[in-house]
Amino acid sequence: MSKSTIMLAQSEDLQMESYSIGVALLMMAICSFAIGTTEFVTTGLLPNLANDFDITIPVAGFVTSGYALGVGIGGPLLTAGTLHISRKKVLVSLMVLFITGSIVSALAPTFAILMVGRFLSAFCHGAFFGIGAVVVASMVGPNRSATAIALMFTGLTLANVIGVPMGTLLGQHFGWRSSFWVISVLGVIGLIGILAFLPSHTIVPKTCLRHELAVFKRPQVWMALLVTAVGFSGLLASFAYVAPMMLYVAGYTPYAVGWLLGIYGVGLVIGNILGGRAADKALITTIYGLLTALAILLGIFVFTAHYKIPAAITLFLLGAIGFGLVSPLQKYILNKAEGAPTLASAANIAAFNLGTALGVFLGGFTIQIGLGYTSPNWVGTILTAIGLILAIISNTKRMS
User: Fold this and answer.
1) Residue 16 has pLDDT above 50, yes or no
2) What average pLDDT does the segment 186-191 reach?
3) Contact, 103 vs 97, CB < 8 A?
4) Regarding the domain delimited by 22-394, which CATH topology (the fold level of the hierarchy) does it fall under?
């Protein structure tokens, strides 16, 4: 066989391998689209839920903060309990759990039952993204890991461009339950995608629970988790109440909320892709820069929220800067937990959502005590600034 023939065969093998990786990443993105839609769709439906169950807006906000708590609790537990099981089998099982939770939410006769459905879906969320991040990173190698993670999370960002606005419109025209029925169908599509296209034997680092737990003895791992929880919580402190903010402060009509969320979602997609690429080139600089920009922008939103066009522009920028942090922070924890990253990865997804619960609670508290619908933006500014300080501390010589 000639040298040119060998080189051609190798090139074709590389192309096939690249194609297979691309299809697998697409399937993971479809699943993340379904999960992302159910996570954020309630943001645009808070007024509907409050009216239907005869509760206040801050109480209705528990569908967001409660979901986040479910992620924080369920993600690490399910990940730890499934370390010895095939990654594909685990991801399939998690999608079945997600679909079950979505159906329970759609059928919920009371707010309490709705919260049960949200918890079931949330338990899938943390483990899926934690395990999924390790799987997709292992497909491409360390030099492109943040980009691969960002591609998986593209489904999550597209959920905010397409899924959340459409879910909001569905909820406003056909009742909020219709949104959860559509989400259930999306979950089934994602499940079929994993079954059909994700490789049965994905190459990931061999590990056991003892090794996975051992990384938590490293102070830098805990600091990385704190950076994620506190730094990212600022975005959700504001975003969880964007619907009433746009309705009662900016003066938009209820039907405008859907396309406003779409504008925010476009920012998420752009920020997610650019954040992943930047993180592969300069991880720490990217994290510092995005946290700084997010803290400043949340402070600005206190004032721009009073005007329609500036409010829409700020929403777009918040999406781009805020979600630009996701893949850099996920790569950051994988680096700090090198050698046994799976449980730490799930813990970081939990940190994202525990931070969300903190931000949503504090934002709702400021509204509850009468500080107004823009007050969650001040909460977000303070939380993100604290996250930046923690990031700087975590990269001192003593911590590293």
Assistant:
1) no
2) 88
3) no
4) Growth Hormone; Chain: A; (1.20.1250)
